[in-house]
UniProtKB/TrEMBL annotation:
One of its GO terms (cellular component) is cytosol. Pfam families: RNase_T. Residues 3-170 form the Exonuclease domain. InterPro entries: Ribonucl_H, RNaseH-like_sf, RNaseH_sf. One of its GO terms (molecular function) is nucleic acid binding. The keyword Lipid biosynthesis does not apply. This is 3'-5' exonuclease. Keywords: Exonuclease, Hydrolase, Nuclease. Gene3D superfamilies: Ribonuclease H-like superfamily/Ribonuclease H. SUPFAM superfamilies: Ribonuclease H-like. It comes from Pengzhenrongella sicca. Coiled coil: none annotated.
Length: 233
């Protein structure tokens, strides 16, 4: 049974149709039982203005020499391939990422109706009327640290999914989505294991390009983003 690819993005605005782009993307991979396998994050240079810095905290200096989406597209597709993609208000992230993949010539099965949305699940599993990520985490007793960073929000969303797996029926009612994810037609290249793209340390100045398996503290940046990394637990 396939596992889950929980993701979140930070973007320059609200719609790829008007030229907005992805600034940061993070993925936490869970196995089919909800156990964390790997997490990965990167800042991206969108090739345009960064949008509302007061929300995401990502300044032009931080991403000036960050990779473009084309540089990480193959590896991101590899992470998502064969897994059920999960997000909080996942339609937003799926729309942006589908547009980014399309722009680099990759046809990927990343549409909202193929994904699992923890915001939608909250309507049936959590008591309060608020469905923001922060409110849902509070209701479920899930830690939500470093809000409005892609990795912080992805970890929180993964925690919500783990809560729903623990407190919901078995098998999960989204089993059909799960099975469809295993058969989804990702590009053949995504099924292989591409070399990870270079790690990116933010902070306004390039501090070095590291192997993704490396773990190094980032310098003190405007927002203190964590380094891009892969951590296997």
């Amino acid at each position: 049974m396939p596992g889950y690819a929980v993701l979140d993005t930070e973007t320059t605005g609200f719609s790829p149709a008007t030229g907005d782009r992805v600034l940061e993307v993070a993925v936490v991979l869970l196995d089919s039982a909800g156990r964390v396998e790997t997490e990965w994050e990167t800042l991206l240079n969108p090739g345009r203005g960064v949008g509302p810095v007061h929300i995401h905290g990502i300044t032009p200096a931080i991403i000036e020499r960050a990779p473009r989406f084309a540089d990480i597209a193959g590896y991101l597709a590899h992470l998502l391939s064969g897994r059920l993609v999960v997000g909080h208000n996942v339609a937003f992230d799926a729309r942006f990422l589908h547009a980014e993949f399309d722009a680099v010539g990759m046809d990927v099965p990343l549409q909202a109706n193929r994904c699992l949305c923890t915001q939608a699940l909250a309507r049936d599993h959590l008591p309060g009327p608020q469905r923001t990520l922060a409110a849902c985490c509070e209701q479920a007793g899930v830690d939500h640290l470093d809000a409005h960073s892609a990795l912080g929000d992805t970890r929180a969303t993964a925690g919500l999914l783990q809560y729903f797996l623990r407190h919901g029926p078995v098998p999960a009612p989204w089993r059909a989505l799960h099975d469809a994810a295993a058969r989804a037609p990702w590009p053949v290249a995504a099924r292989s294991t591409p070399a990870p793209p270079p790690a990116w340390l933010g902070g306004g100045e390039l501090e070095g390009m590291l192997d993704l398996a490396s773990v190094m503290p980032a310098p003190a940046p405007a927002r203190a983003p964590e380094p891009v990394r892969t951590l296997t637990r």
